[in-house]
Write a structure and sequence with these properties.
46 strands, 5 helices, mainly beta, elongated, Immunoglobulin-like, Maltoporin, Chain A, signal, 30-stranded mixed sheet, Ferric Hydroxamate Uptake Protein, Chain A, domain 1
């Protein structure tokens, strides 16, 4: 806490210092108006050097037309003023003699430049993809991909991105992805992140940044990279928003969602409110097969299982506001609250015997669980432009509180198939847990010279997790089971700082290099067993990016970065999660972080085709590890550290326009994965060549109906100690707009051929563990979305511009 308060104090003092410096410097001021005397807001005022005709600085006018620019170095200049709908205006030249020089240009009147144009219809089906030094940017705004879709839809269709039904995300076939919203962490579980994205219209998205090798500016967490969703800023005066409702059915269960969002902009305030309610459903049908080879006998374990899940609650609330103090400084806050109540069951029929299909025992196990989930996340932020050269300072303070109040009943019925004798064993668990997260950070950016920039920052975070899991026998009333009960408390503090530089080396090469340091302090305390696990480690995470412009149509990027993935808080808790009498999951307090070194070479051809080659080396790979108790035919699932992993592959992204009305976006991945570790019986190696084909099709049909078809095929793969069989899916959707594009109707069907089935196997010292599961991906649904606008119409004279965009012109 002391470190966090120090950061905030430093922020205030630094901003005050920069404000004082700004008062010493001279300024160029004035006001832009139209012929009626009305102020022209969001016009561009550029300071141009007379001799070289080069722009040296500039600003964007405020809503009332005023502008203020820091005086440039000594020389002769003139102002070039542009605004949408007006003719360009240039002022007479003026001479700057010293930094304290000031000049008031008074009122500058712009002339209308209105031209009558023929009607033009622009159709853009696929998103434009651009490759930067350290990221791929998928531009969503204005494309058909965004129309009538949700943020969840477009994220899942981005190159190399795969999302399962629980919201878990893979990038280029690898898990461990960090998701950010406007450059800020969401602090949400995978399932709740999916809830938020499904309630967010894709029309609100500006672009999606796919950062496979993040720079030192970002947290080192996330070995597969970062997906950053940038939302469009609301520039429409007055009120606008949308309402939506949807229904879906997976042929076993039904679900629905409904909600809306409102944006309101007036003067210096820009606010939003989102309300989203849902009934989420899911389930699975599965078979589990195990073979245990003991010293004196072999045990065969065959199980059939059915699972069901449903969660619903009151509407979640996401709200925020930003206030522009002036044209350089703004403050804002966001908050997100969600709560729901879920019910789930896992029903199994298990047969055990000493020969194939020759069983001696039958177990009917019914697990019934309920849980109340509550999450509150909030953010306070400040952004300041300290001068007209592009120096910026930003700070963020985040707080999150997440709680679960769950319990479970486990009804086990045993039948001896030889004698017919029946017995039973009832169990009960109470699993309350919660997390408190507090984080503060500060980021500073300073242009050094044309084409060069320095970034620096610091961050501190604190996490406290408390889990009081109690296990009871429930045969003759509740009796505490001390062997399986555990009260576990986990505390973690992370202190980080970074320095990052980027700039042009010459006309062809641009470089970015940085170093991030993270100090981690953690204590895991099991009050029940008295076991205390302390960790203290300092890590450095370098990153280097080199971009080469071979020609206007061919660019090459080289990158290296080091990353880590810290253990999930729940995976550190040694409590046992019960599934059936012969199967349970157990936490691992000794679990170590996973470290990854990533190398890649990316080629961009004609600005639309991308080919990436990469290699990743993983140390202490975190993976689910099945521990086999052969003598008792019991399987214990835990998360452990494998020795190392290797991932070598290529990814190709190629948009193809088949006809004027048929557009496609295609991604191909080919990689080799290898995982190694050492067991009591010797070394274990799991390797596999993996390939994935992903093709998204958009077709403009008659009657303004848009059809989308998504094809996905994943070949066999290796993950930790598991071997995964091939899987495929086909999704299809039809969308049509009514009422002058205010009402969107979408009908969709997912996994038409029921091919997205999880068939995973392990073979550890001849002992077999395999499971075949289908998670009810096949579903149909319908969605209605209504877009509305109240108050002022869009002011076409306004434009969201900044100095960087102006320099590109």
């Amino acid at each position: 806490m002391k470190y966090i308060y120090s950061l905030l104090l430093f922020t205030c003092l630094f901003a005050l210092h920069q404000t004082t410096l700004a008062q010493i410097s001279g300024t160029l001021t004035g006001t832009l108006t139209d012929s009626s005397g009305t102020g022209v807001g969001f016009g561009t005022v550029a300071v141009v050097q007379t001799a070289k005709k080069a722009i040296v600085t500039g600003a964007v006018t405020e809503a009332d037309g005023r502008f203020s620019i820091k005086t440039p170095a000594a020389g002769t200049y003139f102002l070039r003023i542009t605004a949408l709908g007006y003719a360009t205006l240039e002022t007479p030249t003026f001479a700057v003699t010293d930094p304290s020089f000031s000049k008031d240009f008074g009122t500058l009147t712009l002339r209308n430049n209105t031209k009558q144009l023929k009607e033009v219809t622009v159709r853009s089906s696929r998103a434009t993809i651009t490759q930067e030094a350290d990221r791929m940017v998928v531009n969503i705004a204005g494309t058909a991909l965004a129309a009538g879709s949700t943020a969840y839809d477009v994220l899942g269709k981005s190159p190399g991105v795969f999302i399962d039904q629980d919201g878990n995300i893979q990038l280029n076939g690898r898990s461990g992805v960090t998701v950010m919203l406007n450059g800020k962490l969401t602090f949400l579980s995978a399932r709740d992140l999916r809830t938020m994205l499904e309630g967010m219209p894709a029309e609100n998205i500006k672009n999606i940044e796919i950062i496979t090798n993040p720079s030192a500016k970002y947290d080192a967490e996330g070995t597969s990279g970062i997906l950053n969703i940038n939302l469009k800023k609301n520039t429409q005066q007055g009120m606008n928003g949308s309402l939506y409702a949807s229904y879906n059915n997976n042929f076993k269960q039904f679900g629905y969602t409904y909600g809306g969002n409102v944006n309101y902009k007036s003067g210096r305030w820009n606010s939003f409110l989102n309300l989203d309610a849902a009934r989420r459903v899911g389930g699975r049908e599965a078979t589990f097969t195990r073979i245990f080879y003991g010293t004196d006998k072999t045990t065969y374990f065959d199980q059939v299982a059915t699972g069901n899940f449903a969660a619903e609650g009151p509407p979640s609330v996401r709200m925020g506001t930003d206030y522009s103090i002036n044209d350089r400084h703004s403050i804002g806050a966001t908050a997100y609250y969600i709560t729901n109540f879920s019910k789930s069951d896992f029903l199994t029929d298990t047969y055990i015997g000493n020969a194939p299909r020759t069983y001696s025992q039958y177990i009917d196990a019914d697990n019934i669980n309920t849980n109340r989930f509550t999450s509150f996340t909030s953010n306070l932020h400040y952004t300041g432009k300290l001068d007209t050269l592009g120096t910026t300072l930003s700070t963020d303070l985040d707080y999150a509180r997440i709680t679960n109040r769950g319990d479970g009943n486990f009804y086990n019925y045993f039948t001896d198939l030889a004698s017919g004798q029946q017995t039973r064993d009832f169990l009960y668990t109470s699993t309350p847990n919660g997390y408190d997260i507090l984080s503060a950070k500060i980021d500073f950016t300073r242009p050094l010279s044309p084409g060069h920039k320095l970034e620096a920052g610091a961050k501190a975070s604190r996490v406290v997790s408390d889990n009081d899991f109690r296990f009871y026998f429930n045969n003759e009333g509740l009796a505490l089971d001390p062997k399986r009960t555990n009260h576990f408390n986990y505390r973690e503090s992370i202190y980080a700082g970074y320095l990052n530089w980027n700039g042009k080396l010459n006309k062809r090469f641009t470089m970015q290099a940085g170093l991030r340091a993270e100090q981690t302090l953690s204590v895991g305390n099991s009050y029940t067993t008295g076991q205390v696990t302390e960790r203290k480690y300092l890590n450095f995470f370098p990153s280097v990016f080199l971009q080469q412009k071979v020609s206007d149509d061919y660019q090459i990027s080289y990158s290296y970065s080091r990353r880590l993935t810290r253990p999930n808080y729940g995976n550190l808790n040694p409590f046992r999660y019960y599934r059936d009498p012969y199967t349970y999951t157990e936490g691992n307090p000794y679990l170590r972080p996973q470290y990854t070194q990533a190398f890649s070479i990316n080629q961009t051809i004609r600005k639309v085709y991308n080919l990436s080659a990469y290699y990743q080396f993983h140390r202490d790979v975190m993976s689910e590890v099945p521990i086999l108790d052969v003598a008792n035919a019991t399987t214990i699932y835990t998360t452990g550290n494998l020795n190392e992993g290797h991932n070598l592959g290529i990814t190709a992204v190629a948009p193809v326009k088949i006809t004027r009305w048929w557009d496609t976006q295609n991604t191909t991945i080919l990689s080799y994965n290898k995982f190694t570790t050492v067991s009591n019986e010797g070394p274990l190696v799991n390797d596999q060549v993996f390939y994935m084909l992903q093709s998204n099709h958009t077709l403009q049909l008659p009657m303004n109906i848009r059809m989308e078809m998504n094809l996905l095929y994943r070949g066999p793969a290796a993950s930790g100690l598991y071997h995964m069989a091939p899987m495929h899916r086909v999704d299809i959707a039809f969308k049509k707009s009514f009422m002058n594009k205010k009402l969107d109707l979408t009908v969709n069907a997912n996994d038409l051929f029921k091919g997205f089935r999880y068939y995973w196997t392990t073979n550890i010292n001849r002992n077999v563990n395999e499971f075949d599961q289908y998670f009810r991906w096949r579903s149909v649904g319908v969605t209605l979305r209504y877009n509305f606008s109240r108050g002022s119409k869009v002011d076409e004279k306004r434009r969201n511009n900044n100095l960087e965009e102006m320099n590109r012109t």
